[in-house]
């Protein structure tokens, strides 16, 4: 449990708005917000939702310390009444969210918050910070693992992540997305995830020669012995010296569990093929060839096409920083104001139709083909609607209403995506261990056809609106355009 106090991890405007809500006695007005994103990262066909556990910890610890209050007082913006109110602040609302590791798509609510406006507003910035980061890295890792197929992928990004938090939570997200282990020891301890590694060039350079360094490493770590062979000359000294050490181990009857080499520069396809031949000829057919050096999903796919003989991939900078698409654009939008039992749905208009929000308190159904267990579509309804697998379901494309798909009863299965996390301030959700979330993610990815997972121009998953939601949206757009 992370007990960091992050109450001030909020944008200043959340507090200035909240002071107004408080002063006008509006602060207890219940509202509903949705968190969602509009475009899949990396031009991909999906995202992997991650970060919920850190969001839960943030909400549980959400209170202002006396020092926080003093700091705010010294800004000379907040009055005593509001600051006194903040002293006893805690979250009493209800949150529904998608479980971590779930495959998700643009525009569907991933988190639904129902709370007094003052609470719902203050948590916006932290929710987006936490979820945008981890969801982005988990998605990147899922793509990398997809490209690597059945190979092992190790997360090596610590030294290039944007600071300690991004490295630790990034490693967590990378494991959720499919990485098999991380070099980040703090992440290993915090989340009980496998820590793995080889050795650096410095060790080879430190000893009088490469062979001595390899011998020392092999002697100490015979169970996991990947020797870095590119410090001087990969094929002329690195691989021959590694083979020499493996022969010495064989002669001494030492049977390593995992042994082999790591390539870290040069033409990884060519070098891996040559090294494979040399290892095989020396009788080390089960020696592993691992590689690192600016890898990402595209290069791994490319190296496989080139016939590279690599089965363990160390992936650092490009994954931990999501280098080709460094921010997920998740947003947090007000969708309803409660008026007693009745909800007043709210919509945000925009000249850009993509940015018009889906109004009202909603839920999301995932529709699976009963035979294949693959996702057919996601379906957003108003909260008071109920779908039934035993009736015919008609799916309309939101922008092209003529694109219709009819699902006969009995041919599809339904699952609600949003599950309760907090009910009236009480946490009702127990996060599974990270390795279980990773398994869940693998099962989730299996519910997607390959067409949605390919790296370029993937199929677009349909996220449909129920008729009631569609009609409400049209009505509100029409009313807003005519009144403002
Ligand atoms: N067969 C290949 N096909 C495509 N790209 C490759 C192949 N082999 C290596 N690369 C990539 O080419 C780039 C250059 O590799 P190279 O090892 O020559 O330089 P480097 O990594 O900067 O070297 P160093 O780590 O010693 O500084 C790296 O991004 C590497 O991942
Ligand atoms: O390339 P990445 O995907 O970020 O993987 C991590 C890199 O970190 C290490 O070397 P470092 O980058 O410190 O030095 P090097 O580039 O000289 O090998 C390692 O040898 C990898 O090359
Ligand atoms: O263990 C490794 O091989 C490793 C760890 C961090 C970065 N590069 C490589």
From TrEMBL:
Its EC number is 6.3.4.21. Transiently phosphorylated on a His residue during the reaction cycle. Phosphorylation strongly increases the affinity for substrates and increases the rate of nicotinate D-ribonucleotide production. Dephosphorylation regenerates the low-affinity form of the enzyme, leading to product release. It comes from the Bacteria. Residues 361-473 form the Nicotinate phosphoribosyltransferase C-terminal domain. CDD domains: NAPRTase_A. Belongs to the NAPRTase family. This is Nicotinate phosphoribosyltransferase. It comes from Thermohalobacter berrensis.
